[in-house]
Design a protein that fits this description.
The protein has 128 residues and is mainly β. It has one domain (20-127). The chain has helices spanning 3-6, 77-80, and strands spanning 22-28, 31-35, 40-43, 53-56, 59-64, 70-72, 83-93, 97-103, 108-114, 117-127. The strands form 3 sheets. A 4-stranded antiparallel β-sheet has the order 2-1-5-6, with no helix packed on it. β8 and β9 form a beta hairpin. It starts with a helix and ends with a strand. The mean pLDDT is 82.
Length: 128
């Protein structure tokens, strides 16, 4: 047997025609998130109790993956007609960030820590 015969070729993957998935780009708390149904995002604290429904009003873009059916928004949500809803899963705190300051030759050091509050949201629906 030669070396070429020993290496086995893997069968070619079949091209699976997956259904196009709906997505949207949402702006919340000064940040943009690309979301689709089932996506979990961690955003700045939102008012409400765990299990409440949140509607995102600032939708920048929406469409379907794998297709040319993409709508781009340059104004308000009403001109696009897209609604994004999610469920509030938890109120939690982010990882600790350490702030360390030091002045050379001055004997000055300062160490400080900070943990940002976050809300975790599960995107349930993006309706075009």
């Amino acid at each position: 047997m030669t070396a070429k015969e020993k290496t086995s070729k893997k069968p070619a993957k079949e091209a699976v025609a997956a259904e196009p998935q709906v997505f949207a780009v949402v702006r919340t708390c000064g940040k943009q998130h690309r979301v689709s149904p089932g996506t979990r995002i961690s955003i700045d604290p939102q008012e409400g109790k765990v299990g409440d429904t949140i509607t995102f009003s600032d939708v920048l873009m929406a469409g379907k993956t794998g297709g040319a059916d993409v709508k781009v928004l340059a104004g308000s949500e009403k001109s696009l007609g897209v609604t994004v809803t999610g469920r509030l899963l938890a109120h939690k705190r982010d990882k600790k960030v350490i702030i360390f300051k030091k002045r050379l030759k001055g004997g000055y050091t300062k160490k400080q820590g900070h943990r940002q509050d976050k809300s975790e949201v599960l995107i349930e629906a993006v309706s075009l």
